[in-house]
Amino acid sequence: MLLITLLCASSVSTAADNHVPTLQGDRFKKLVPFDPTAQFIIGATFNFPSLETPAEEIFENDFQVLTPGNAFKQTAVHPRPGVWGWKKADAMVEYAKEHGYTMRLHAPISPQCSAWAEEDHRRPEELLKNLEEYVAGLCDRYKSEKHIRWVDVVNETITREGEWFGPKPGVGKWQNPWTQIGFDESHPLRPPIYIKRTFEIASKHGPHLKLLFNQHGGMEKPMWDRAKKTVDYLRDAEVQINGVGWQAHVSAGWEKIPGNMQSLDRLIRWTHARDLEFHVTENTVWMDDPRTGTQEAQAATFRALVSKLAEHSKRGVVVWNVWQLCDSHIQRPQKKGTMFDDAFQAKLSYYAVQEVLRRYSATGKE
């Protein structure tokens, strides 16, 4: 059945620049419709500039849970003290409300902070105040918007080597200045103070929100060991935390690398054992290796990841969020990491995921 479905992809007419192609089979949201009580939830990301493009139509046809890209990050809404820019963020909140979509705010304290925060002369007191006003300001602004369900609270706190991700000299580099606020020296883990403080503020000012600890990278053991200890630290301190997120930016063939799928399986089990949700918050599958980066290989990797999530929905909440809906809309377009090409033509990956969702819909499990 999968082979037949995949072959259908080649018969779909090529999309014109302003039109979404007619796709074969049921759309994603028909197969796995959003339900607040569901244990398997699917969603997608598209940015404010993608409104009134075919990406919007793809989203409307396939998804009901929206993550509006980077519209809510500090760089966008609070570039420096006393300055706020809500135009794009407000527009996406209203858009989702009008269309009946549920939202996740990708609005973490993270390396994607303002240039003001990155400046080398900032004092810890300044950084803490800036952090607090951003998180409180954002949560206060949207606390009455019940269609906003989740928020990424912190992001990319730990390096792949298992160290706290910190600052670098200068501005404009990939860095995390927030560790300069200090560390909790009373705990053996010495976690940066900003992590716990950010969760505390989000919980106070956004009481209806589900709060996520989001992490990048692959399945590097030192990184995830420290991430798990950080989550347990927050839970021991009775700080609200509702889920763990993984930014699954992987290359085609990732699932074939020994240990990757086993490590992912253990991570999801660990998360559910603590009654936390597990989110794949940003899924792309890069076609960046000419030897393995084929459409077939990309489809197999998407299939493996979504199948693993579907499998674990029997034990707890899992969320799959694909990052962007067209290759030309993503940060690295040359890597062709999405399910639709530059002309919004569905690739084999779309039909591979469709088959997983069809089987899940028919049986309640992968």
Structural summary, described in words:
- The chain is globular, with a radius of gyration of 20 Å.
- An eight-stranded parallel β-barrel has the order 1-2-3-4-5-6-8-9, surrounded by four helices.
- It has one domain (2-10, 32-363): Alpha-Beta Barrel (TIM Barrel), CATH 3.20.20.
- It contains twelve helices and nine strands.
- α1 (2-9) packs antiparallel against α12, α7 (124-142) runs parallel beside α8 and α10 packs parallel to α11 (295-312).
- It has helices at 2-9, 28-31, 54-62, 74-77, 87-99, 115-118, 124-142, 193-205, 221-236, 260-273, 295-312, 348-363; strands at residues 40-45, 65-67, 102-105, 148-155, 210-215, 243-246, 249-251, 277-286, 318-323.
- By secondary structure, the protein is an alpha/beta fold.
Number of helices: 12
CATH superfamily: Glycosidases
Question: What is the SS-derived class?
Answer: alpha/beta
Cα Rg: 20 Å
Sheet having the most strands: 8 strands, parallel, barrel
Which segments are poorly predicted (pLDDT under 50) over 5 or more consecutive residues?
1-17
Give the tally of structural domains.
1
CATH class division: Alpha Beta
Query: How do the helices and strands follow one another from N- to C-terminus?
Result: HHEHEHHEHHEHEHEEHEHEH
Could you tell me how far the N terminus lies from the C terminus, measured between alpha carbons in angstroms? 14 Å
Under CATH, the topology can be stated as: TIM Barrel
How many DSSP E strands?
9
Shape: globular
What percent strand? 5-15%
